[in-house]
Design goal:
- With 203 residues, the protein is of the alpha+beta class.
- Among the domains are: 48 residues, Translation initiation factor 3 (IF-3), N-terminal domain (Ubiquitin-like (UB roll)); 85 residues, Translation Initiation Factor IF3, CATH 3.30.110.10.
- The chain contains five helices and six strands.
- The strands form two sheets. A four-stranded mixed beta sheet has the order 3-4-6-5, with helices on one face.
- The longest helix has 36 residues.
- The N and C termini lie far apart (111 Å).
- 10% of the residues are buried.
- InterPro entries: T_IF-3_C_sf (IPR036788), T_IF-3_N_sf (IPR036787), Translation_initiation_fac3_CS (IPR019813), Translation_initiation_fac_3 (IPR001288), Translation_initiation_fac_3_C (IPR019815), Translation_initiation_fac_3_N (IPR019814).
- This is Translation initiation factor IF-3.
- Monomer.
- GO terms for molecular function: ribosome binding; translation initiation factor activity.
- Belongs to the IF-3 family.
């Protein structure tokens, strides 16, 4: 609109049922804009919410193991590590040494190496094994980014829901077919009191 007086700008805003919003107060002359301020605030809030939703927060999970862990416990811990990596999180693996175990760091190193090889499909070694006092540490990074992991997780959840719905529908259909087979015939004659009487009796 160019340079106009404040009264004229306010009149224009009233005529168009809009708000007069000052967007550059330090300019000379100040810059104002005609807009629906309520709608503008709503759209800004929506953008901020969407931006927060798409933000990826790096999370580091921790898993602790002993050098002489038994096979069953190892498989359980490995399952947790795989779950964390599939979700797009980093995992810090800590091997805890106690007593005489501290004199055999190769036990921890070999265990960490084995774990890294077992989860190659889902993660990679981001920080190589290193001794830290009584512990030995290694960090695994996920092969998929957090956003990609979320998309995959959503697709997997939708697939499971579709399979469950299909199974429920098939079960309902099977029950309906079973009921249809057991419906008594409509043409079957209904017995009455006269059917129980002796036909030779004269009435």
């Amino acid at each position: 609109m160019g340079i106009v007086k404040i009264d004229q700008a306010l009149q224009l805003a009233r005529e168009h049922d809009l708000d007069l919003v000052e967007v550059a107060p330090m300019a000379r002359p100040p810059v104002a804009k005609l807009m629906d301020y309520g709608k503008f605030k709503f759209e800004e809030a929506q953008k901020a919410r969407e931006s927060r939703r798409n933000q990826t927060n790096t999370v580091i999970k921790e898993m602790k193991l002993r050098p002489k862990i038994d096979e069953h416990d190892y498989e359980t811990k490995k399952g947790h590590v795989v779950r964390f990596l599939k979700a797009g999180d980093k995992v810090k693996i800590t091997i805890m040494f106690r007593g005489r175990e501290q004199s055999r760091p190769e036990l921890g190193y070999n265990l960490l190496k084995r774990l890294a090889e077992d989860v190659t499909e889902f993660g990679f070694i981001e920080s190589s094994p290193k001794q830290d006092g009584r512990n030995m540490l290694m960090v695994l990074g996920p092969t998929k980014k957090k956003t990609e992991a979320r998309v995959d997780e959503k697709a997997e959840r939708e697939r499971r829901m579709a399979e469950r719905a299909a199974a429920q529908e098939a079960e309902r259909q099977a029950e309906a077919d079973l009921r249809a087979k057991h419906v008594p015939s409509a043409t079957k004659k209904k017995r009455g009191p006269a059917d129980n009487m002796d036909p030779d009796i004269d009435l």
